[in-house]
Amino acid sequence: MIYPKKINASNGEIITQIMLAISIAVAIILTIINKLTTPNVPWAALANGGIIYVWVIVKYSIHRNVNIAGHVLIQTIAVSILTVFIDYKLGFKGWSLSLAIPIILIVANTAMLILTIVSYKKYLRYAIYQLFILIFSVLPAILIGERVVTKPIMSIIAIGISILNLVITIILSAKDLGEAIKRKFHM
Fold it and tell me: 83 and 60, same structural domain?
């Protein structure tokens, strides 16, 4: 059986640079076409936002030995920024803050809960990422308090799921977490 040749690191870097150059060229061409054809509709900015999003994820994913919870955190932040950008470019109706980000947070918290259930012995590897997602999940509460979010139902659900996720994770990992604390502090 003949196997395909493995791409070595220098070839991989060259391919990445070529793809980045192509992405930049596409972004410039899209911007020019947008300005010439429909300057009042910012569709090129939306497409370019998607290109930037893809490159953030690709660059992060290329690194070896990256924790899957780290991917969840980066995706949560990147998609949230992208949705706010899209909402802003479309005239900022607020759907990104009142609907999209809470849904993203619900999905991220669900993913973290699944990771904890599936590999609860490795909870400590996921703990810092889960803490960051929990802190990020408080953002809707702040936006509700500041009256930025006018329809808070999804934000309230996202906050509730985030708190529930923390409680379930502590319950599932309490014994292991206690043992880790005893080992660290020699109790």
Answer: no
Our measurement of the distance from residue 167's CA atom to the centroid of its chain's CA atoms, rounded to an integer in Å, reads 22
Domain shared by 71 and 59, yes or no: no
Name the pLDDT band for 29 (thresholds 50, 70, 90): very high
Q: Are residues 75 and 145 in the same domain?
A: yes
Full domain range(s) for residue 186: 67-187
How far apart, in whole angstroms, are the C-alpha atoms of residue 44 and residue 57? 20
Alpha helices in the chain (DSSP H): 9-37, 43-62, 68-89, 95, 101-118, 123-137, 139-145, 153-185
Q: Mark whether 144 and 54 lie in a shared domain.
A: no
Q: Which tokens sit at 176?
A: 């292991």
Q: Cα separations (Å) of 19 from 10, 14, 31, 55, 67? A: 14, 9, 18, 10, 25
pLDDT tens, 164-186? 888 887 777 777 767 767 777 77
d(CA 12, CA 14): 5
Do 39 and 72 lie in a common domain? Answer: no
